[in-house]
Amino acid sequence: TSLADIQEEYDFLDADDRYRLLIDLGRALVAARAEGVPWKLLVLRYGLCRTRLWQLWRAAQEAAAGTTARG
Prior knowledge:
Helices cover 75% and strands 0% of the residues. It contains 4 helices and no strands. The protein starts with a helix and ends in a 6-residue tail after the last helix.
C-alpha cells in the first residue's frame, strides 16, 4: 500500500475510521520493524518523516496494549 493510496482512502473517512486507518498503518510499521526493516527504508516507502512514522508505530503499540489516549 502506497502513501497515496492511504491518503486517498483517508480523505473519505470519518474521524473514527481515520483513527483506525492510522492504527492499521502503525501496526504495519510494528510488523515491519519486528522483521528488521530499517526506519530509513520505511521513510522512503511511506514518504513520511521518521518522527511521524515513529509516532504511528508508537500509537499502534499503545493501542495493542490498550493504553491509547486519543486527543
